[in-house]
């Protein structure tokens, strides 16, 4: 992953070409991009997003746990952004920006739980069955976004109404005791 894929595939010369050649070049790039992709590996396309719930709570880490609250003053620096790697058009891996921590939905003793796991988001595979717990389905409703676990259908990422409580998962997203609607904005 250290070597950009494009470099591994071919060397691109500098060219001052007319538009028709440009189109050929683009087609060529697209074709080589597709041909070079190792099977099962998604294109490396990670993007950072800011996330906050509809009550304006942002995410931060407390004892390695993801928490949502109202950060003020110098504490606003503690806000964590989310790294996103697309899996399919509406599904994605979610990680803590710049950290080796990814969000996962796990079933522990019949209890569904949100877990932060020490894994680099770029090492996750969309074809590996055991990586499904890191996959979330994004659904947009007007300006807000909800995240359902692909491994635990019906379970949605949520915050509590109360500040400074852990981010978790709920299977009753319609009930007003949890917040499942987020603003999710690309940085
Ligand atoms: C994750 O892996 C990528 C590719 O190897 C690397 O560039 C990046 O620094 C790693 N991230 C962390 C937080 O270790």
Automatic annotation (TrEMBL):
Similarity section: Belongs to the IL-1 family.
UniProt keyword Secreted present: yes
Described function: Anti-inflammatory antagonist of interleukin-1 family of proinflammatory cytokines such as interleukin-1beta/IL1B and interleukin-1alpha/IL1A. Protects from immune dysregulation and uncontrolled systemic inflammation triggered by IL1 for a range of innate stimulatory agents such as pathogens.
GO terms classed as biological process: inflammatory response to antigenic stimulus; negative regulation of interleukin-1-mediated signaling pathway
PROSITE patterns cross-referenced by the UniProt entry: INTERLEUKIN_1
InterPro entries listed in its UniProt record: IL-1_CS, IL-1_fam, IL-1RA/IL-36, IL1/FGF
Localisation: Secreted
Secretion signal, residue range per the UniProt entry: 1-36
Species assigned in the record: Phyllostomus discolor
Protein name (Swiss-Prot/TrEMBL): Interleukin-1
Keyword Cell membrane: no
One Gene Ontology molecular-function label: interleukin-1 receptor antagonist activity
Pfam family, one: IL1
Keywords tagged on the record: Disulfide bond, Glycoprotein, Receptor, Secreted, Signal
Entry GO CC: extracellular space
């Amino acid at each position: 992953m250290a070597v950009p894929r494009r470099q591994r595939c071919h060397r691109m010369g500098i060219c001052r070409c007319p538009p028709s050649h440009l189109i050929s070049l683009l087609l060529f790039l697209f074709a080589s991009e597709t041909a070079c992709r190792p099977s099962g590996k998604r294109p490396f396309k990670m993007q950072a997003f800011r996330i906050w719930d509809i009550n304006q709570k942002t995410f931060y880490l407390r004892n390695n746990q993801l928490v949502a609250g109202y950060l003020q003053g110098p504490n606003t620096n503690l806000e964590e952004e989310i790294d996103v790697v697309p899996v399919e058009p509406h599904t994605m891996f979610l990680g803590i920006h710049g950290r080796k921590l990814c969000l996962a939905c796990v079933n522990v003793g019949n209890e569904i739980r949100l877990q932060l796991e020490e894994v680099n988001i770029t090492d996750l595979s969309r074809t590996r069955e055991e990586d499904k717990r890191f996959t979330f389905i994004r659904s947009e409703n007007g300006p807000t976004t909800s995240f359902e676990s692909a491994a635990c259908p019906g379970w949605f990422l949520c915050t509590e109404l109360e500040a400074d409580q852990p981010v978790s998962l709920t299977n009753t997203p319609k009930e007003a005791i949890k917040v499942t609607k987020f603003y999710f904005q690309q940085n």
